[in-house]
Structures are given as C-alpha cells and as structure tokens.
Amino acid sequence: MNVENLPYGDEPSVSSDQSATTRRALTLPHFPAAYQAVIWRNWELIPVDRLAHVLDASEENIVNAAAQMGLRVPPRVNARWLSRGYQTIIRNNWHLLPYDQLLALLGWDAAKLAFTLKEDDFLWVKMGFYKPRVDAVRFRPLSKLEREASVAMKTVVETHFPVVVEQEQAFDFLESFKKQSGHVASANQPKDVDASFDLRLIGAYAAQCGDVLLNPELDPHPEGLLEKYQALGINGLWLHGLLYTLYPWEATREHSEGYEKRLQSLREMCERAAKYGIGLYLYLNEPRGMPLSFFDKHPEWKGVTCAEVDAAALCTSNPEIIDFLRDGTRWIFEQVPQLAGLFTITMSENPTNCFSRGGVEQCPRCRERSAAEIVAEINTAIEQGVHGVNPDARVIAYTWGWKKDWVREAIELMPVDIEIMCVSEESLATNVGGIEGSVLDYTMSKVGPSEYAREVWRHAARRGMKTVAKIQLNCTWECSFVPYLPVPQLVKEHIDNLEKEGVNGLLLSWTLGGYPSSNLALIDREPRQIAVEKFGTEAAGNVLTAWENFSAAFGEFPFTMNVAYFSPQNYAPMNLLHLEPTGLESCMVGLPHDDLEKWRDIYPADVFEEQFRRVSEQWKRGLDLLEEARGVVTADKLENLDELYAVSMAAYCHFRSTYLQIAFVRRRDRTEHEEDATLVALVDEERELAKTLHAIVATDSRIGFEASNHYYYSLNDLKEKVLNCEEVRRRICCRN
Questions:
Q1: pLDDT-derived band of residue 14, with 50, 70 and 90 as boundaries?
Q2: Which of 181, 322, 492, 572 is such that its CA lies 20 to 30 A from the CA of 223?
C-alpha cells in the first residue's frame, strides 16, 4: 500500500498487491437494483435527505423506493447509529459504495475515515486490508422486471414480518445504565473484595474504541453502570489511551491537537468513578507506530516498517523515544493525578517497537539486541514516568505476544514494582473432536489457567512482583454477540482455579465482556446462590440444569484463535448464503462470507460441522429446561427468566446458524446436485433462525452489540437474510 492509501492517506484505494479476486465486491442478487441495497441497509440508520444526496435523488424518490420494498414508511431514524454505530454502517456499505459516497453517507472527511480505520480497534484489519472497487450508485427508474422483483421482495417482507413488534431501538440499553437505584455505597467503604483478587479491572460494556476522551458526550461510564459495577465488587475500569493524543510532544504536535480537552475528560471520568470506589486505568500500546511520512523529519527514529498499514515503529533503541515514553506518562499522571494506574501491551498488531511485528533485521540498532531487553526497557520507562509522580499507581505489564523463550528474561529485567499480567488460558492444550490444539487467548469454553500461565506468575512472584490474570467471564470472540454467555459452571471453575493459584488481580474483560451480569458475581458466589436469588427456589433447579447443559455444550466448541476470529458465529444469522463461491476471504471478527477453509482452521470440515452440531443440539436441551422453568417460576421472577431465555436463545441462533452455514457450504461445493433437497432444508432453517433472532433483537437492544464492532447487524440486516434465503431457495428449486 502506498502512502496515499488508507489508513493514513486522503484518497484510499486498494493495495496493488491485492489479487483481482479479493478486489471484487460482493454481489447481492436478492436486490433488483444496487441503489435498493443502499436504501435497505441504511434505512432508519441514515436520514432520508442524506440518502437522497448520496444517491442523487429526491427525498420522494427515496421514500417511494423504500415503500416499494416493504420498508417502514415514514422511517424512525435513530441518530445514534451515526455517532455510536458507524462501524456497522461502514461494514454494511463497504461492498456497495465507493469512498466518496461512503464519506457522504457518514458525513465525514477522508482524514476522519482514515483515522477510524487505523485506530478504531484495527478496523482496517477487520475490513480485510482492502476496499473493494465499486462503481458509483445512483437512483434510476426500474425496469419492468426490476419492478416485478421489487413487488416480490415486498411480499416476502410482509409474509415473514407481518407485525411490527419493535420494543427497543438500537442502543436503548444505554438508558438503563443512566438509571441509579439511589443505594450508592460510600467510596470509602466499597464492597468487600477478596484479598486474593485485590484488583478487579474491567472494560466498560459500551465504551467506544475511538477518540472517546475528545467526545465525552459518548460517556463510556454512566453513573448507573458505575453503581452496578460497584455492587459486583469491581474496583477498576480501563480505557484506551494514545500517548501522542494526551501528551503534547513537540515531534507530534499536529497529532496532539485537543489534548487539553482529553485530559480534562480524563479528570472528570476519574472523579466520577472514584465516587463508587472505582479507579480508572489507561491501556497503553506504545510507542505507537507512525505514518511513513512522519519520518521525513525524523529519519533517525524510524524502526521496522509495517507495510500493511504504511507505518513504521518508533525505534526504542533511540534514547529519545525512551524519553518520550517516560516523559509522556509522567506528564499524564501529573495532569491527571486521580488515575489509578495503567497497563501496557508491547507486542501487538500495531507496530510498537522493532520486535513487535517481526522483521527486526531491518533495524541496525535493534537487531543486535534481544526482544526481552527491548520490552523490559519500554515497560521500565513507563514505570519510571508513572511512579515518579505517584508511587502508589499500579503499572501492569501485559505479556500478550511475548515469546516463551524470553518471557522470563523480560520479567527479570524489569523493576519489581511492575505487575505481570498473563492470559490465564495461554498455551492451554485442547482436544476437541479428536483434534489437538492450544489456546492463545479469548476462550471461555476451555477452562484455565494453563501450566504456562502458572509458570509466568510464579516466576514473577518469586521476584516479589504482583500477578494479574487476564480472563473473560461474560463472553469472548467465541460468542461476543450477547452481553454474557450463561455458562456459570465453566466460569466458576476458572475463578476457583485462579484463587487456588494465588494471583493478585483479575482483568475481567477486553473490549468485549464488560456487561454487569451475574457471571461477574461468581467471583464471590456460587451458581446455586445466584439461581435461587434470581429465579426463586422452585425454578432454580431447572435453571441450574439448563446452565449445566449450556456449559457442556459450549465445551464442545471447536476452539482455536483463528476459529474465534474468522468463523461466522459472531455474525451467523445475518451472514448471507451464496449458491456459488464468492472467493472472498473471511476477515478478523469481520464479515465471514463463505470462506469455510479459513473458518475451520485446524479442524477437518466434517469434524468442524459435527462440533457445531453438538454445540447447538445440547444448547437446545438447555433452552427446553428454561421453558420448563416457566411452569414453576413465581411472577416476581418471571422477568429475570425471560431475560435469560432471550440471551440463551440468541446464542442458540448464532451457534445453530454456524452449523447450518458450514453444512450448506460443504454440500454446495459438491459437483452434483443430488443434495439439493438438503440444501433447501438448510436454507429454510436459516431463514427461521433469522426471523427468531429478529424478534429477540426487536425487544432486547443488547443482542448483537459489541463495543469494538458496534452492532454486528441491524434489524434490516436480519430481514435481508430472509430475502437472501428466499432468493437462494428459488434458485436451487429452479435448477431441478
């Protein structure tokens, strides 16, 4: 990718090394005309006048076209999509609109889109490192055949969605976080915290990954949410920080614009959280790589180049970069003395040092040094900056991405005042369906800690360093589409194991997993206690057995990091079916398309299909038990049971849909059509799952949301899946 291209340039284009196949845009034969797809996917997300501007049409044209397809007229436009759901909008239009029209749709300039793709939790990676080439889309009169197809579309919509049952709009769950009970414990008398877990740190459920401090109105920590966290014993919240946006370093002054407002926002967030006995922590992934143009003025600072993002690392073998880390963190803690601490990641997808992305041989300074020395030096500089201002602030070095052959050396080289955090399940051996594998991160289906994590913590403890376990108690990339996964037996087993290990603190979530659910209460309580309290004595037995079924079902999940990232389970009921292979690759927690080879990773296709069948069928047995609980639950507990059932059914829809899509692609790709009847049955079940999930999402705005990806789907996306299924079904039947 050239400097002019995203994610840094003003005029993004496809990298020259992308093949013609990966440059193709996805075709959508269930829409008679391209502009109809644009209207459909943006209806009620984007104001009508803006859609009219983008498509070079009148507002009357747009409204009539929407009505012709069976969309709600007049629309109920939800303005929060543009401020909080822009990733969903970008994803839904990535294969529809060229850049200029996409920018007009968002109301952004190119620089804002470039920054978002670069810094909004690797969005450019999630989009596959390229933008499909598409022609401009304009409104035009439909042909006779297109009008007839549009009438058929409307008939499908009215047949499968005859009644509007929408009770919640997207993001309505935010309102519940603004409500307070009035029973706030004193900050000086917080909820008792078990001494073995003196830190319980979590990422706020709906905190955005962009420049939140510059836009405090987005409010990642409303007081009702803080109150809920306090009641669950949470005493720390973490927030993304970018050093050069908080510290006015002379070399990056143009990137530091607005630092005063960001620091003020940080102070206010700290003060508000402190009322609930909660400290605020920064997550720093530093020193952040800079665009190649930055090094025109500072060639001596240039480290290893990362061609994928047109950036290079700031070489930390240059003392001026180490000074930047030390001075920058000192500055932040001087300006915001209320900060409770920070944690670092030094090896990541971002280029942060000359070892972070490989290719260290490019750097004449670092290639003579060890990764352990570099990583220790970075963390030491940050620790010196923080503790030079506040010796009591916690500085935590997260070992994510550190290599086994040098992790101990890095720990040895760091001050003992630094705490060591390790993924609890890292290197945990797995055997699913007879296929052996191992865990890197992000699993709840496989219970830690691993022997490797134990060794890291014990080595740090022998030096007198505190230890922290990074875990996920609510959800992971295995299941990030729900606020929590009801598998308390797995969660409790993991917590008990960590308590026995004697780790000092817990990082309870990444960008996903921050919902204040009863799973977090399992740190202090048993599943039975929670079941009796929430569902009553009579219903508790059924609920506990349902949870056991969910836990056992989830244990069958065919885990690897690549499966978690690339398999369709996070999007499944909205992910389109394709009767012919698209040739498009699945993207990391992005659109999975029909890329079975990437979905399955180490698992043979038949084993992969079988495992998701097992997950979904045993999960269904748990749902049946929750239905039985309705016969004995008391009226005052029914709302709790309804909520649990909705979350559990949403999870079933995703897991079952993943199984169906694997089965569909496997049978579709066979040369003969002898299994067309099976394909039709798979398509029909997919259609019904999309309808079921649509009904759930219409009443529970949490479903389908994840902070770093916004919504995986809108209600219209799930309706579109029904259109897609009907079109695929028609084409299968027509070839017989």
A1: very low
A2: 492
Q: H or E stretch including 597?
A: helix 596-600
Q: Which residues contact residue 470 at a Cβ distance below 8 angstroms, ignoring those fewer than 6 apart?
A: 398, 400, 421, 422, 423, 424, 441, 506, 507, 510
What's the token pair of residue 287?
Answer: 């020193």
Q: Cα separation of 663 and 553, whole Å?
A: 19
Query: Tell me: the pLDDT tens digits for 402-432?
Result: 999 999 999 999 999 999 999 999 999 999 9
Half-sphere exposure of 14 (CA within 13 A, CB side): 18
Q: Are 453 and 469 in contact (CB under 8 A)?
A: yes
Q: Radius of gyration of the chain from Cα atoms?
A: 26
Task: Give dist(CA 530, CA 356) in Å, integer.
Answer: 43
Residue-wise pLDDT tens digits, 256-286: 889 999 999 999 999 999 999 999 999 999 9
For residues 523-537, one letter each, b for 16 or more C-beta atoms within 10 angstroms of the residue's C-beta and e for the rest, the string is beeebeebbbebbbe
- Taking the CA of residue 443 as centre, how many other CA atoms within 13 Å lie in the half-sphere pointing to its CB? 28
Q: Beta strand pairing status for 429-432 and 435-438?
A: antiparallel
Residue 17 has pLDDT above 80, yes or no: no
Q: What is the 3-state secondary structure (H, E, C) of 447-490?
A: CCCCHHHHHHHHHHHHCCCCEEEECCCCCCCCCCCCCCCCCHHH
Q: Angle 59-69/144-160 helices, nearest 10 degrees?
A: 60
Spatial contact of 317 and 365, defined as CB atoms under 8 Å apart = yes
Higher pLDDT residue, 437 or 12?
437
Token pair of 201 as six digits: 């740190």
pLDDT at 89 over 50: yes
d(CA 312, CA 294): 9
pLDDT value of position 348:
80
420's tokens:
């060591």
Would you tell me how many other CB atoms lie within 10 Å of the CB of residue 658?
29
Q: What is the residue extent of each domain of the chain?
A: 1-164, 195-533
Instruction: Give me the helix-helix angle, 527-554 and 605-629, nearest 10°.
Output: 150
321: tokens are 């970069």
The residue length of the chain stands at 736
Q: Which amino acid is at 337?
A: P
Distance CA 649, CA 438 (A): 29
**For residue 300, pLDDT beyond 70:** yes
Give the single-character DSSP code of 710.
E
Residue type at 501 in one-letter notation: E
As a whole number of angstroms, the distance between CA 355 and CA 363 comes to 10
Q: Return the percentage of the chain with pLDDT > 90, whole number.
A: 84
CB burial class (10 A; 0-12, 13-18, 19+) of residue 254?
Answer: exposed
Bridge partners, 646 (sequence order) = none
Domain 195-533 class, CATH top level: alpha beta
Burial label, 218 (beta-carbon count in 10 A; 0-12, 13-18, 19+): middle
Distance CA 369, CA 374 (A): 7
CB-CB contact of 237 with 278 (8 Å) = yes
Q: How many CA atoms lie within 13 A of 296 on its CB side?
A: 5
* Contacts of 255 by beta carbon, 8 Å cutoff, 6+ apart: 244, 245
Q: How far apart are CA 138 and CA 147, in angstroms?
A: 17
| The residue type at 129 | F
What tokens appear for 42 in the block?
A: 């943006």
SS3 content of the chain, % helix, strand, coil (to 5): 50, 10, 40
Give the strand pairing for 311-314 and 290-291.
antiparallel
Dist CA 354 CA 356 (whole Å): 6
